[in-house]
Amino acid sequence: MGIFLAFGLHALLAGALLVTSSSLPGLQRLTLGESISVGRPGDVLVSAGGTFSAGFVPVGENAYGFSIWYTHALQKTVVWMANRDKPANGKHSKLWLHNDGSLVLLSGGEGKVWEAGAGLGWDVISLELLETGNLVLTSRTGNVVWESFASATDTLLPGQTLTRNTMLLSKRAAGDYCSGFYNFKFNDDNVLYLIYNGPEISSVYWPPQDTAIYTNGRTNFNSSRVATLDDKGFFLSSDHLNFSSSDYGPGPSRRLTLDHDGLLRLYSLNETTGDWAAVWLPDIKVCEVHGLCGAYGICTYLPEPMCTCPPGFHRADPEDWSRGCRPEFNLTCATGSVNFIRFRHTDYYGNDLEYRNNATLNSCRRACWDDPRCQGFGIRGKNCYPKYALLNGQRTPSNTNRMYIKVPASTGVRKEDGGALIHSGLQCSDRSLPISRSPYLKYLVGFVGALGALEAIMIILGWRFVRRAHRSLGPAEMGYRCQLVVGFRRFTYAELKAMTRNFSKEIGNGGFGSVYRGVLEDGRTAVAVKRLEGVTQGEAEFWAEVAVIGRINHINLVRVWGFCAEGKNRLLIYEYLENGSLDKLLFASDAAKVLNWEKRYAIAVGTAMGLAYLHEECLEWVLHCDVKPQNILLDEQHRPKLADFGMSKLTERGTAAGGSSRRVKCEVSRVRGTRGYMAPEWMVNQEITAKADVYSFGVVLLELITGKSATGVSEGQWNHLIRWVEEKMEGRHGMDQMVDEGLNGGYDEVQAELVLRVALLCVRTNKNERPAMSTVVGLLLGDLSQDDDWSSQGSPA
């Protein structure tokens, strides 16, 4: 009960803080000759409705920036700053509306540090902060002659536009308002990009530059270059970059901010708590942001994103990872006196000296050895990429690239890295960007101390709150709290009934409930609505999936758009995949016409990448526990997306000594999975690890190759498909005897044999002999050095 009392006091105090902050006296406008001074704490401009405030914000010791912020946010959230790169110094600094109509920022002892509206003449009569957050100079006729919306800093507000002449420019770091290295702007090709503009080099990191503009859903034909965010949370751009917040609709205060970590986030404000929640993020992983770890630095997941230095290098600045790593040796190496440190699953994106096709490891090494500009090279398959700069390093288990860094032989650094990296302990911020509470807690402690005399009253009020909260707290309120955490849109049950026409079109049915087709309010966007059945069992699975799926984002995983928790109803809203599940196409009579070999191979690789991400890359590692064609959905281009992964229980994370072997495991209360795809350990009640998913995936690979289903046989033949393939191989039958005859020989024999051998590795009875999913990805993509057992397998005749 003491916990509930503390929560009640916390809520009441937070409410008191919000009321106090929103009721501060403020100025409505500045007229000619008037000023706002650092030395007068009450000098704050407030918009007509009180949503925004403007005044001086401390940015350093005795340094101030004139800023606009959201009044009701618990932590002062600056959305615009006039002089971010040249702060005003001293208590005598002030913002002055000059008699000539110009707006001047004067620094104590330094004079003018910023100016706006110069040369507009005597027509200007006032400075006013609008309810939109736009700071404007107005004329006698009511016209706006200057506005802050025309010079955004790191934030775009509803109603504000980005044009060919404006951009968002990130802060330097958390708490450092100076201009940073990341910007969001239209490039010369009329497309909006996220760009790293560092001290040494500039590069685009979103959308990816290794795919075409149109593949990313953009266009470069519209030269108007304009983008805006509306008051309902919808972003519309001339290059077709369109997205909406997960809580789409009128109501919450919102902001689109390019944060200091290089990620663009759309936030909504909870007016009750004063906290911000991210309600949209671009489809990009943290380690894909350029410049994050600086020169030579490598971003990796341990399991949170973290910057690291290679052996022979140390962190250049203990306070700033963007400065990268500094070598502990002289980089000017003479030919014949160098070694190369090898890193698997690692790449330094971009900065290639050249591209060499069909290159061997030795020829690539020799080319880098002989070129004094070359700092290292990457090998992917048979392609070689010598580098003149080692920037944008990232290491992920699904990355098939091998990186070789050039170092002097005299350093004694080992040629083989063995997976070892030097960690300096500073983590990158994760995708969800949790809002720090520490400033609030400090403020709250001080506030409680100041109100000590009212303690008795607060206790009484707290007890009343506890009784009320305890009485009313239900699944709907729990769902609302979950929405604040993961940023999903919460739907009402009535909305879902209307969207699905009273759940009239069922498109699927599984162990957790039925799936229905629905259409959002816009009348165009189709969704899949999963209605969980069985209140006792469904509730646990529902909360498990909602808690996990909000932190998981991958191109080969189905995206969830929202949820409903109302009474006994538990529903999840997913993206709708046009081509349904893999089983409906693979086992159809005309399967070969729809799924040719190229598509089957792409489905195999994409599904493997999705599983590798679940097992080893995402911040909440999970097992799927039911990998089968029915849970592999296909989009309009037959690209695979795994579904139902959030239903499995969250896994524990274990790391063996030295960090060389990671194991994912879970305690499962009941057997999950489907006969024909279940690993042997399910049958004998052994501990279930990620290797159970590897086994199931291996079965799916066999189905993709043969066109035969692993189910539909008697109970004693649960592994009949595996036995059939093994018998064919023991009889030394050719690939034509095993590949789906409907393909009529239209397949790549080398590729098919590769997939078959990978499948047989995956379905080994001893789980310890099965490869990890990241290794499977590498093998499928042709990196045969990924697995030591590869050479021990035989080939079909």
User: What is the percentage of strand-forming residues?
Assistant: 25-35%
The tally of helices reads: 15
Tell me the strand order in the biggest sheet. 37-41-42-40-39-38
- Helical content class: 10-25%
Report the C-alpha radius of gyration, rounded: 30 Å
Largest sheet: 6 strands, mixed
The CATH superfamily name of the largest domain is Transferase(Phosphotransferase) domain 1
CATH fold description of the largest domain: Transferase(Phosphotransferase), domain 1
> What structural category do the secondary elements indicate?
alpha+beta
Into how many domains do the coordinates divide?
5
Write down the overall mean pLDDT: 79
| Regions with little confidence, pLDDT below 50 for 5+ residues | 1-24, 417-448, 459-487, 649-671, 713-717
**CATH architecture assignment name of the largest domain:** Orthogonal Bundle
Write the layout of secondary structure elements.
Blueprint: H1 2-22, E1 29-31, E2 35-37, E3 45-46, E4 52-60, E5 63-70, E6 77-81, E7 88-89, E8 94-97, E9 103-107, E10 111-116, E11 124-129, E12 135-139, E13 144-147, E14 155-156, E15 161-163, E16 168-173, E17 176-186, E18 192-197, E19 202-206, E20 226-229, E21 234-237, E22 243-244, E23 254-258, E24 264-269, E25 276-280, E26 298-301, E27 305-309, E28 313-315, E29 325-327, E30 338-344, E31 346-348, H2 361-370, E32 376-380, E33 383-387, E34 393-395, E35 402-408, E36 422-427, H3 438-450, H4 455-472, H5 475-486, E37 489-490, H6 493-499, E38 506-510, E39 513-519, E40 526-532, H7 535-549, E41 560-566, E42 569-575, H8 582-586, H9 591-594, H10 597-617, E43 632-634, E44 640-642, E45 652-655, E46 662-666, H11 680-683, E47 688-689, H12 690-706, H13 720-730, H14 749-762, H15 773-780
Parallel strand pairs: 26-34, 37-41
Antiparallel strand pairs: 1-11, 2-8, 3-4, 4-5, 5-6, 5-7, 8-9, 9-10, 11-12, 12-13, 14-23, 15-20, 16-17, 17-18, 18-19, 20-21, 21-22, 23-24, 24-25, 26-27, 27-36, 28-29, 30-35, 31-34, 32-33, 32-35, 38-39, 39-40, 40-42, 41-42, 43-44, 45-46, 46-47
